[in-house]
Write a structure and sequence with these properties.
Elements (H helix, E strand, L loop, with lengths): L4 H4 L2 H26 L7 H27 L9 H15 L6 H28 L3 H35 L1
Helix pairs in contact: 2-3, 2-4, 2-5, 3-6, 5-6
Length: 167
C-alpha cells in the first residue's frame, strides 16, 4: 500500500525503459518523415529540412541503440523498413490531397518539443546513475534536436507564404 511505480523498479530499469521509449519516439519521427517526404514537393525548404531530420533521426536511433547495448539490453528490431514502404505507398496513393502542411508543421514542432523533453529526462537519469558518457551523448542529441527545432521555426514564414501562394 502506498507504493509508487518507481519503488518497484530500480533506477537502472527506469533509465533503460526511458531509453527504449525514446527509441520509439525516434522511430515514429523517422516513419513520419518517410511518409511526408513524397508529398512536400511544393515546399523545397521543408523537404530539405525533412531530409535532414530523417538523417538525424536515424543517427539518433543508432546512438540510443548503442546506449541500450552498452547496458546489456539490445534494442527491439526496428520496423522502419516495413513502415516506410507502407507510408510511401500510402503517400503516393493519396497524392497528398489530405495533407495540410501547416497542420503538419505545427505537429512536427510539438513532436520535436516532446523529443527534447524526453532527452532532458534521459540526461538527468544518466547523471543520477553516474553514466557520464551516456549523459554527454544524450546532451549532444538534445542540442541537435534544439537546432532542428530552430531551423523549422525559421522556415515557418517561407512555408506559410508558399502555402498561401498555392491557394
Amino acid at each position: 500500500m502506498g507504493r509508487t511505480k518507481t519503488t518497484d523498479r530500480s533506477a537502472l530499469d527506469i533509465y533503460l525503459r526511458a531509453l527504449r521509449d525514446h527509441l520509439s519516439i525516434e522511430s515514429k519521427a523517422i516513419e513520419t518523415a518517410l511518409s511526408e517526404l513524397p508529398v512536400c514537393e511544393r515546399y523545397p525548404g521543408l523537404c530539405r529540412r525533412m531530409e535532414q531530420d530523417l538523417a538525424m533521426g536515424r543517427s539518433h536511433a543508432r546512438e540510443v541503440t548503442i546506449l541500450l547495448s552498452r547496458h546489456g539490453h539490445p534494442a527491439p528490431v526496428p520496423h522502419e523498413t516495413v513502415s516506410s514502404i507502407l507510408s510511401t505507398v500510402s503517400g503516393l496513393l493519396h497524392g497528398g490531397e489530405e495533407h495540410d502542411v501547416l497542420k503538419n508543421v505545427l505537429a512536427a514542432s510539438g513532436y520535436r518539443a516532446h523529443q527534447i523533453a524526453s532527452l532532458q529526462v534521459l540526461i538527468v537519469l544518466a547523471q543520477q546513475l553516474g553514466f557520464a558518457q551516456d549523459a554527454a551523448a544524450l546532451d549532444c542529441l538534445k542540442d541537435e534536436e534544439i537546432a532542428a527545432a530552430g531551423a523549422l521555426e525559421g522556415l515557418t514564414p517561407e512555408i506559410v507564404a508558399q502555402y498561401l501562394a498555392a491557394g
